[in-house]
Write a structure and sequence with these properties.
The complex is a heterotrimer of chains A (401), B (100) and C (164). With 100 residues, chain B is an all-alpha fold. Chain B contains three helices and no strands. Helices cover 78% and strands 0% of the residues of chain B. Chain C is mainly alpha-helical and 164 residues long. The chains are: A mainly alpha (401), B mainly alpha (100), C mainly alpha (164).
Chain lengths: 401, 100, 164
């Protein structure tokens, strides 16, 4: 306890990091389940169904499979870089999450007040871009060190693609920065408070709809997702940069990709969708009960579905889960929990929506050809982003005068 | 507090390493990288001086150095690609004639 | 020893190690990685010096864009291990002493001129002040660099075209 008293910031930060890491890794696992389910339903299939009720234990089974597979290191590879690449990819992808603020309230851990963010930096956005810009190395080095032509092509493509789209990504964000005048992510959210005509929330997506479009497209390309997944195009490059990776190192690339998706969605929420601000007017009292009500109603609905359709062990397990969800919802309805849970709830809700768009795009769009990708990035996306920036700068200047 | 002269000595060491790499290396790309190392060393000195004098001008110069380095990298790497295409080698020893 | 001093020495050692590895590793991509190591440890040093903005753009532009270009070109040209030629030996006998001499001389001059002076107490400076300086006092050089970048882009495009 003496150590805690001497270094409260350090201890509290470590606790927050541990909690964030635990939650993120679980969320990553269930994001794969979510993606497979949604894609399956888009394609009129059932998706994972047999491991656990509704395939809910599938991520666990996948994890066990990855752990127990043979770990192959190609003899002609550059061992050090080959091992370094997945670590680099995953650790950088997880580091960015430390900068994301998920709520406005100050909570108390071990009696010390602290914010719902690990590192609240004055130039948080720049640091976020700094960390994501190094993320390219994970992919590029994996492609190079595997000593395989498919991997090399995948690595080459990804480094070219990520550099090209990073420019559009950064430029599309500058419009928002002009409107709010800060790099600090918490202050960026605070600057979006208020309403137009008392009911439309004053989020940056409304004046910056073009910027949001550019950001979202560039973000999909940055995270190497469909329709910009050329670095890992199965049909042409086998699996691109991770062709030679197996077992847990492959899983690390997989997790890095999903962690990047989450980061990019969080950033979109903070920059354009008002972060943790509620879309409904704060003067309506009943909106404070939405988080709890959603959990309670969702839990009860799932319980009814479980009792009707499932049999045997699955029925028991899922019923227990449903009761737990209802209990969480009941907890969220308590007066002292509401102010803490409300911000994170809306934040995670918006992030979830964007992630759903990601998956939807994957289920809908075909892959770009390489020349189309480059033409789109340089000849359409970047000019549109720059035009948006110029117009925004002009309007901000006129309004400030 | 770290004395400013430590930063400057580190900057000098890095600059010296850059010079050594420039003399040692035979590959055009790594020679180019050693120039970047020297530029980085100079940047460190600029930031350290800016801190010592309590003025921000040094940081503005670092900004300009980084911009120039980016422009230089774009042109330099394009030239390197041309050399590699025309001579099928990256060794500066073999790029010793004006004619192909 | 204060935390700052420990952090300084850790980063300084990493930076020097990166510089040494840049010289001694033969594979160009290893050299590129060691240069990235130098750049990232320099970014941490900039943070120690209170230059947050410079630290961020050091990583975004240097480590995240310029070095990615280097790695890209190394991969594109499939640059293998460096070959040793006769000239290398001359470099060893003339270059090493001269390089070490240059370093020692610089260190000596700096130590003589500045000694153990501590940094000015004005700690972290805001990005706002930096931007005011950049867009008011130094606005002409700023515009000049934008033209420089434009020329560089044109030059790169012309050079990289296959036939001209």
């Amino acid at each position: 306890m003496e150590f805690v008293a001497q270094h409260p910031v350090l201890v509290v930060s470590v606790i927050k990091i541990a909690v964030l890491l635990l939650l993120t890794l679980t969320a990553l696992a269930y994001l794969t389940w979510f993606e497979r389910k949604v894609i399956a339903h888009i394609q009129s299939r059932w998706g994972p169904y047999f491991v656990g009720p509704h395939g809910l234990l599938q991520p666990l089974a996948d994890g066990v499979k990855f752990l127990f597979k043979e770990d192959v290191i190609p003899p002609a590879s550059d061992k050090f870089i080959y091992l370094l690449a997945p670590f680099l990819a995953l650790s950088l992808a997880l580091t960015t999450l430390a900068l994301i603020p998920i709520g406005p309230t100050t909570i108390h851990i071990l009696g010390y007040p602290t914010q719902l963010v690990i590192a609240n930096s004055d130039i948080g956005l720049l640091f976020l871009f700094a960390i994501t810009s190094i993320g390219v190395y994970g992919v590029a080095l994996a492609g190079w060190s595997s000593n395989s032509k498919y991997s090399l092509l995948g690595g080459l493509r990804s480094s070219a693609q990520m550099i090209s789209y990073e420019v559009a990504l950064t430029v599309s964000v500058v419009g928002v920065l002009l409107l709010s005048g800060t790099f600090n992510l918490s202050q960026l959210v605070e600057s979006q408070q208020g309403r137009y005509w008392h009911w439309i929330p004053r989020w940056h997506i409304i004046p910056q709809i073009v910027g949001f479009f550019c950001y979202f497209v560039a973000a999909i390309a940055e995270t190497n997702r469909v329709p910009f997944d050329l670095p890992e195009a199965e049909t042409e490059l086998v699996a691109g940069f991770h062709t030679e990776y197996s077992s847990f190192k492959f899983a690390m690339f997989f997790m890095a990709e999903y962690a990047n998706m989450i980061t990019v969605s969080c950033l979109a929420t903070i920059l354009f969708l008002g972060g943790w601000l509620s879309p409904l007017s704060a003067s309506w009292q009943w909106t404070h009960y939405i988080p709890g009500a959603v959990f309670v109603i969702g839990g009860v609905a799932l319980l009814q579905d479980t009792v009707r359709k499932l049999r045997g062990l699955h029925r028991v397990v899922l019923s227990v889960v449903c009761v737990a969800i209802v209990a969480i919802g009941y907890g969220c309805l308590q007066a002292w929990v509401i102010p803490v849970i409300e911000g994170p709830f809306w934040f995670l809700f918006k992030v979830f929506l964007i992630l759903f768009f990601y998956v939807w795009a994957r289920g809908t769009l075909p892959r770009f050809r390489y020349d189309q990708l480059m033409n789109f990035g340089w000849k359409l996306l970047l000019p549109v982003a720059i035009a948006n920036l110029v117009v925004t700068a002009f309007i901000v200047m006129v309004l400030n005068r | 507090m770290v004395p400013i002269s430590y930063y400057l000595i580190l900057s000098a060491i890095l600059f010296g390493l850059g010079v050594l790499a420039f003399v040692f290396k035979r590959n055009i790309i790594t020679i180019f990288m050693s120039i970047e190392l020297m530029l980085n060393a100079v940047n460190l000195a600029f930031v350290a001086f800016s801190r010592m004098l309590g003025q921000l001008d040094g940081q503005v110069f670092v900004f300009f150095v980084i911009v120039v380095a980016a422009a230089e990298a774009a042109v330099g790497l394009a030239i390197i690609i041309q050399i590699a295409r025309n001579r099928q080698t990256l060794n500066v020893e073999r790029v010793n004639t004006l004619k192909l | 020893m204060s935390v700052e001093l420990i952090l300084f020495f850790a980063c300084a050692i990493l930076a020097v190690a990166g510089g040494v590895m840049l010289i001694f590793l033969r594979e160009p991509i290893h050299s590129a990685l060691s240069l990235i190591l130098v750049m990232i440890s320099l970014a941490v040093l900039y943070l120690l010096l209170g230059a947050e903005f410079i630290a961020a753009i050091q990583i975004i532009v240097y480590a995240g864009a310029i070095m990615v270009l280097f790695v890209f070109v190394i991969m594109l040209l499939n640059a293998g291990e460096e070959e040793r030629t006769n000239f290398s030996r001359i470099a060893k006998f003339a270059g090493v002493p001269l390089g070490i001499f240059l370093t020692l001389e610089l260190a000596w001059v700096i130590h003589g001129a500045i000694g153990k002076m501590l940094a000015a107490p004005s700690g972290a400076v805001s990005t706002r002040e930096l931007s005011l300086l950049l867009f008011q006092t130094y606005v002409f050089p700023f515009e000049a660099t934008s033209i420089l970048i434009l020329i560089a882009i044109l030059g790169a495009v012309v050079l990289a075209k296959r036939d001209f």
